Give the backbone structure.
Amino acid sequence: WQNVKGDLDQEQSLVWFTKFLANNPAFALEFLVGPKMGHLNPIQDIIIRAWIARDFNLLVAGRGFSKSYTASLFLVYYALFNPGSKIVLCSASFRQSKMIFETIEKFVENPQGGFLKQCCPKGYISRGTDRWEMKIGKSVIIATPLTEKIRGLRAHLVIIDEFLSVPEKIINEIIRPFMSVKRGQGKEQ
């Protein structure tokens, strides 16, 4: 796709542009979310590219580094460029998961982020007492507290905010089994 020469018809240009966006997170997020909310600093672009390239990631940074905001942008990016993904967002307190979820909702509702809103179906959010869901494209993001009620949940991607606050027993007995399903195999919840 990098060696494109000559004219492209509409379908070819859409494919080329999609590949361009998929390989340029900073440009894609600014395009989808809007220039103010979707702007990435160079370090955030590097972090998101690293998260895309590797299966297991840990970001350790001080207060005010925008870890949760960066995770929110990454979730939007991942959901769109990995269609059909089931993403689970959890933290030691449901409040923190809901804050990240609400940040993503602000991205969708941002007037400058019209392209992202077009990717979300009508009624794209549902909020229960212990589970919030958002549909972006063909993917779903689920925010949930870390309780026994979430046993049996499956996901293609798990984001754990405030990882060090989560007891090791919960990580081993509840979160690790989330990842036992691969895309296209078996029945997924």
Observations:
- Helices lie at 10-22, 25-33, 42-53, 67-81, 94-109, 114-118, 168-175.
- The beta strands are 86-91, 125-127, 132-136, 139-145, 157-161.
- Residues 185-189 have pLDDT under 50 and may be disordered.
- DSSP finds seven helices and five strands in the chain.
